[in-house]
Amino acid sequence: MAVQWFPGHMTKAKKDFEKNLKYNDLVIEVVDARLPRSSENPMLNQIIKNRAKPHLKLLNKSDIADEKVTQQWINFFQKETTISALAVSAKNKKNKVDIKKACMKLVPHRGTSIKPVRAIIIGIPNVGKSSLINLLTQKKIAKTGDVPAVTQMQQRIIVDNDFVLTDTPGLMWHKIESEVQGNYLAASNIIGINAYDETEAALYLLDCLKENYSQSLMDRYELDATIINQPSEDIIEAIAIKKHMLLKGNNPDLRKSAVIILQDYRSQKIGRISLEFPEK
């Protein structure tokens, strides 16, 4: 399954990003801490690399990701790349200071009222970029929502007298070739509902949970180890039966079971989960 989800306004947004990049000192990229690789935009990263701009990657939603794995990602970016990385949560007001300090460190020649830091902030839809902007400004400047593609226009935002942001729409690339990547994005509610199959996304999610969070999976759905060791299709069926999600003829409702699994992951009812690991 190659996921294709590229709303028309994103073509214009990509061109606007390229145009405005030269007027900014650095790039702040927001990714989902649960899947830092799958939630970054390779199309934009290549543009940033070509322009040789300082690059700060914010691993947002770190409060719902596996804390140990998030720290592994921070170490990875700092040791293996030229990208600075910081774990943040839009719910943590203290992170405003952390983000500003990280930016000032990257552009030490800026950061006064005369020469404020000028940062352009990017991220694919629904990684929490708008919520972070509201955190930085301490106001509800940017629209937020739990569906992708809320922001559709670039806007200049004065955070403080020494810090200015250029906001951009959530930008996807044209085609997600990897099945794993596409389904991780789907499971994490980052791409639109019409672009994926819920049962397929739940199967990929279960594959990860079985391998890395088997005890959390067993605890949430009262499953035993013999079921956990079965194919993910059997686990979806077992959960449907356990939760009495049945169709006519007492057949398990596999789609409803899949939707419940996705919802439980998104609402942290299974626990703090990371889907991607640096060593893999």
From TrEMBL:
MF terms (GO), sorted A to Z: GTP binding; GTPase activity
Q: Which residues cross the membrane?
A: none
Instruction: List locations, semicolon-separated.
Output: Cytoplasm
- Main location group: cytoplasm
User: Could you tell me the Gene Ontology terms of the biological process aspect for this record?
Assistant: translation
One Gene Ontology cellular component annotation held by this UniProt entry: cytoplasm
Q: Where does GTP bind?
A: 60-63, 126-131, 170
Q: Which UniProt keywords apply?
A: Cytoplasm, GTP-binding, Nucleotide-binding
* InterPro entries in the record: GTP-bd (IPR006073), GTP-bd_ortho_bundle_sf (IPR023179), GTP-bd_ribosome_bgen (IPR019991), GTPase_MTG1 (IPR016478), P-loop_NTPase (IPR027417)
Superkingdom per UniProt: Bacteria
Q: Where is the G domain?
A: 119-214
Q: What does this protein do?
A: Required for a late step of 50S ribosomal subunit assembly. Has GTPase activity.
Say which family it is in. Answer: Belongs to the TRAFAC class YlqF/YawG GTPase family. MTG1 subfamily.
Q: What is this protein called?
A: Ribosome biogenesis GTPase A
Species of provenance: beta proteobacterium KB13
